[in-house]
Amino acid sequence: MDKILEAVMLSSYPTNVKQGLARRVIEAAKQPMDSAQCWAMLELSTKLYLVGDTKFKREIGQEVLEVYGRYHLEAFVEFFNAHFLLTLLQEGYGTPGHPSPYVLDYVQLGLQFIPEGPAAEGVFALLRLEVLRKVCERPGPRQCAKVARLLSQYPRCIPDGRHRLLFCQQLVRCIGQFQCLAEGEEGIVEFLSHVNRVSGLLPKIWRAQASSILPSLKELFAIISSTEEQEPPSNALASVVQYVPLELMDGVIRNLTNDDSITDAQMMTAISRMIDWVCWPLGKNIDKWIITLLKGLAAVKKFSILIEVSLSKIEKEQEKVERKEEKKEMEKKEVKEEKEVKHEEEEKLEKKKEEKEMVEKEKEKEEEEREREEKKKAEEGCLGPRTGGNQGAPCVEQMCGPEGSRSVPDLINYFLSPETLTAENRYHCEHCASLQDAEKVVELSEGPRYLILTLLRFSFDLRTMRRRKILDNISIPLFLQLPVASGCPQQDQDQVCAAYDLCSVVVHSGISSESGHYYCYAREGATATVNPPGSPGLSSAEKLPAPESQWYLFNDTRVSFSSFESVSNVTSFFPKDTAYVLFYRQRAREGLAAEPKAPRPHSEPTLHKDLIEAISKDNILYLQEQEKEARSRSAYISTLPKSPPWGRDFDEDKDEDDEGSPGGCDPAAGGSGSSFHRLVF
Question: Are residues 458 and 580 in the same domain?
Fold first, then answer.
């Protein structure tokens, strides 16, 4: 049966399976069996209980031991004999150098099944000597607590006669060496529990033999009054004093203060250590003993001891305060150093991040430059101005320009430069009725009040068969001169130059020609003047830009302050953002600017009366439609359980470059959400 149980314990079955099998073996053990089988099972239970590496094994060993103690008492008494216990207590059980810590628990478990008789008397006589030897070996709090538990349950194991006095003195010595090595709350509570159990054994012995009290107190005073250079005794000794009857206090103190063999140094050391006992959490009557001792010293006029004790305690308190302050300073210093180290690490990480971003930006710029070069080689990219169908139209749009152009004036000059029509592009002459070489020239007969220039940013890639965006950076001048065919000294005798100031720039953000985001820079500038028509031309002072005014950035619903530097460097700062539409305002001429009723350089043509009425009716109809639409939308939203704080009035198509609610020039390009269907005057 022992082989079966051992195999079950060593098997890899789950715990619940092994528990069920062990229960069957234990139930079978209640049946009668021979002595050899009982000894084998008792040896196995002893092994499981003392050296079992799990709680489950120790519990099974305990159950087997209890079953054989109840149902096979004769075999149990024969096995649990004095010789076996002596070997177990002196040599231990288990590997050499690492005896089992459960020996005393095992002994306490087996004593309950020993019947009265010579065998029991021999076992208790052995234990009275062994517990004294155990205490003289100065065990730790845990083992001392097990000794106290054993003696509390079986008082017959307490040493008797002169050994009892020695046992009390050695037990006080053990308590004086207790040290709490645990740091957590559970460990401290367990330590206090062990100390309380051990010190609680002394009053039980004192009640049985009152003559052992004074020897125990003398041993206690000898421990706390020792002036030898050694580790100070444990404050756990305070738990011993609380059990001393208070009626003995006056006599004990009188004997101490009148004892000439006790030096002042010893008395002062003892008082200092007793004062330290006040902090012991389980101490009782400690303050009464200290006060009585101080009064006794004052009664015999040993004031020097009192003074020395007071001064030493003051010095100790000052040292504690200084240590606390030093500790705080050290903690502050450590915290400061940690912050500095953390700050340095953050700065290093930030620098690395910035360096990484710079490297990535440089790589992106290199890739964009490479793409531009490849694109220029693969396509005939063009940037430049274009005009409408009629000369003098108020809008000029850029379409084509010379390769490598980097400024708006260069593009305008290129567009207005003469074009030679030869070879396949020859001009068909009506007079000659044949193709002839010719020269085509574009001229502006009149400068518009507002000059709108559109940069052709989109081209068709013949390799990919897709539209692509041209990301070239174009220099945008704040002041622009537009050649007009009326005579200008800079050009020829038949041309003049109209002066314009930049007032707004529409920027396209994105790398795709199919999508993107639009935002705008604009300003409200002061009106500058130029010489009236017929003057010799523009002087150097008159060529200067108009007075600078505040620039604003309009990005969807956000409006913020900006500057012309941001406008001119937008592509440098953000390679994907390029100027798309430029708005220039013509400067007023001196003669016209002086007239109070002529603020504009060009008067608008007067509309016909019928046309004005048609426009007014159309405007009224438009406003009514808008009002009706707003009311229906409001009524619909009010019926919803939860209405979002914004409207879905924009185009739902999104792509990788335009995932928000972008603003733009028109609805097709990702506009602001509401299309302009009519003009409202």
Answer: yes
Give the separation between CA 469 and CA 460, rounded to whole angstroms. Answer: 9
Shared domain for 558 and 627, answered yes or no, is no
Q: Are residues 574 and 679 in the same domain?
A: no
Which residues, at least 6 apart from 661, have a Cβ–Cβ distance to it below 8 Å? Answer: 556, 650, 673
- Site of tokens 């004990």: 252
pLDDT at 501: 93
pLDDT level of residue 306 (50, 70, 90 thresholds):
confident
Contact 542, 530 (CB under 8 A): yes
| Burial group, residue 381, by CB count within 10 angstroms (0-12, 13-18, 19+) | middle
How many folded domains does the chain comprise?
A: 3
Question: Is residue 349 one of the residues assigned to a domain?
Answer: no
The amino acid sitting at 526 is: A
Three-class DSSP labels, 236-255: HHHHHHCCCCHHHHHHHHHH
Q: How confident is the model at residue 453 (pLDDT cuts 50, 70, 90)?
A: very high
Q: 285: left (phi > 0), else alpha (psi -120 to 50), else beta?
A: left
pLDDT digits (tens, 9 = 90+) for 138-162: 888 998 999 999 999 999 999 988 8
Instruction: Give a yes or no: residue 639 inside a domain.
Output: no
Q: Global pTM?
A: 0.47
Residue 526 shares a structural domain with residue 392: yes
pLDDT grade, residue 529 (50/70/90)? low
- DSSP 8-state symbol, 557: T
571 alpha-carbon distance from chain centroid: 37
pLDDT digit string, tens, across residues 71-114: 888 888 888 888 888 888 888 887 766 778 888 898 988 888 88
* Residue 408 sits in the same domain as residue 388: yes
Task: Give the pLDDT confidence score for residue 395 in this predicted structure.
Answer: 36
Instruction: Please check the confidence at residue 267 and state whether its pLDDT lies above 90.
Output: no
Top mean-pLDDT range of 179-183, 309-313, 319-323:
179-183
CA nearest neighbour of 354 among 312, 362, 599, 267 = 362
Q: How far apart are CA 260 and CA 244, in angstroms?
A: 24
Asked if 514 and 622 sit in the same domain, the reply is no
Q: For residues 171 and 175, what is the distance between their CA atoms, to the nearest angstrom?
A: 6
On whether residue 582 sits in a domain, the answer given is yes
Domain boundary among 213, 244, 275: 244
Read off the tokens for 319: 């040292």
**Residues 597 and 678 placed together within one structural domain of the fold:** no
Three-state secondary structure call for residue 493: coil
What is the 3-class SS of 363-382, one letter each residue? HHHHHHHHHHHHHHHHCCCC
- Given a cut of 60, whether residue 679 has pLDDT beyond it is no
* Enclosing domain of residue 430: 379-604
List Cα–Cα distances, 450 to 391, 396, 500, 581, 607, in angstroms: 15, 10, 8, 13, 20
* Cα–Cα distance measured from residue 417 to residue 415, given in angstroms and rounded to the nearest whole number: 6
Pairing of strands 479-484, 466-469: unpaired
The pLDDT, as a whole number, for residue 147 is 92
| Distance from C-alpha of 15 to C-alpha of 18, rounded to nearest angstrom | 5
Q: What is the predicted pLDDT for the residue at 525?
A: 66
Of the three residues 201, 228, 244, the one that is the final residue of a domain is 244
